[in-house]
Structure formats: C-alpha cells, structure tokens
Amino acid sequence: QTREAVHVQPFVSKLFEGVDSFQFQGGAVCGAVLLGGERIFLHPPVATRDVELEVWLSHVDDLIYSVVREGLREAVESRQSIQGDESTEWLFERPQQFSVTAVHLHWTVEIETILSPGSGFPPKLALASYTERFGKQTARFISLRGSATSVAQEAATASLVVLSLHHRDVVGRLVQAGVTSLSDFEWQAAFRYCWDPSSDPDQPYDLSLSCLHGLLPYGYEAYGAHHRLLVTPLTERCRTALLGALLLGLGGAVCGPAGTGKTQLIKDLSVAAARACMIFNCAVGFETLVVTNLLR
Q1: With contact defined as beta carbons under 8 Å apart, do 187 and 115 qualify?
Q2: Is residue 181 over pLDDT 80?
Q3: What angle do CA 109, 185, 216 make, to 5 degrees?
C-alpha cells in the first residue's frame, strides 16, 4: 500500500507534529493542512510516483521546514512595517504560528529598544509609559475573538490574549525592579525571541529562544492552531529551568500531583520552540526495549 501515496493520510498526524493531512494533486504533494484547518502550500510540489516512501516524505519534511521559516520571516517583516498596535488585520492573513511568534518577537524588540543606551528616554519612565498600552492591546485582542470565523482564528486570538497578559506581567516586574539595562537579571531571565536576519546559507537559524544568556535555535516545526498555556509564576520558573537544561544538553523532570499541567507545560514549551514533542506514559509494564524503540 505504500506505493499509493494517499494511503499515508491516516498516519500523517503521527509523522508530523502539527500537520493533519496532505493535499495531493497530480500524484504530488502540493500542500499540507495543519491542525485547526490552516493550510500551507509547498512549492515546488513533491512528486510521489515511482519514488520510495521514505524519500518523498523526507522531501516534504524539508519543504515544510523551509515554508515555515520563510513564513515567519515574512510575518516578522510585516509586523515591523506596521506603526503602533492599532492594525490587527494582518494577524488573520497567515497561520497562527507566524502571527503569534511575530507579535512576541516585536515585543522583545520594543523592550530592547527602550533599554538600549541610545533610546533617548529614561528607561524607567519609558517602561512605565509602555505598560499603559497593554490594557488597550489586550482589549483589542479580546474583541478580535468576536470576529474569528474558524478554529484557527479563535485559537490565535486566545493565544494573543495570553501572550499580552504575560508581557504585561514581565514589564510590570521590570518597572518594579527598576531595570535600566539590557544586562539586568530581570530582563535576561525573561522568556523572549531573538531575530538574526543572517544571509549566511550555512546558518539555517534566523530565530532563537533566549533566556539567561542562552540561545535555543527555533525548530521550524509546523504546529498549526494551538491554545497557549497561561503563564503563572510557577510555570515560568519551570519553563526557565527546562530551557536552561536544554541549553546545557541536560534533561529535566517536572514533579507534582496529577492534573496540575506538567505535560501541558512541556507541550507548550515545544510549541514555543517549534520542536517535535513525543509523549508516552511510562507505566509499570514499560520495559527498556520499548523505550529504545521509541527513541530510535
């Protein structure tokens, strides 16, 4: 059955983290439907006729990576070209992953501009003034939920509201701590994106997650529409510790009672980093051979 590419459809969501199905046209994969119904188009289409399954799936994987990377670059440039926060139409013109990431990155750029030595304004006053924008911004994102016409748009607006509230809390801590420099600990400990528009073809990462002087390259995994986890002080500490462990090549174990969001925290971190997340239950009957097969 692997000779017929369409027979792969029931297993696509297991092979790709945020892809629900492929779009076929003329014996080639021309696009992918993400979770939530969003679509991305693959150019050029990947031929499947008379091609081994592993070969064309690998080509599709590489092409999705390139599409996500290019889509993020375009979304970031689009957000940077907009003056102020009034325009929201652009948010629904692209997949949620691109819009939400661009908003988060733009916030990082604005805060770093305020804290830079050449900003021209005292950082304390500029940050205090900046906090006044969050009430209006959050209200705009909430009002967008009424105009959402799809599952993906509803998830995007919900994620933007959560992100806006988190950014408000971070800026509030910066003001309370009297942060005046980019090197201050409160800002370095913040979970943020860094954008490096490098033209070096040998450097595939333009986007990275930054926390405590460490940089985790963005994985460019297509994730589709996801509701982001509400960030509390406890989840933020756990996320910072786990990201620090990843940067050091170590592992981490989140402990706590059942149903408190430990798995959701890991899944949300994987969405933020656009990296595949594999979840399995280590029950009593789990043997080392089963784990070995999963990690191959």
Answers
A1: yes
A2: yes
A3: 60
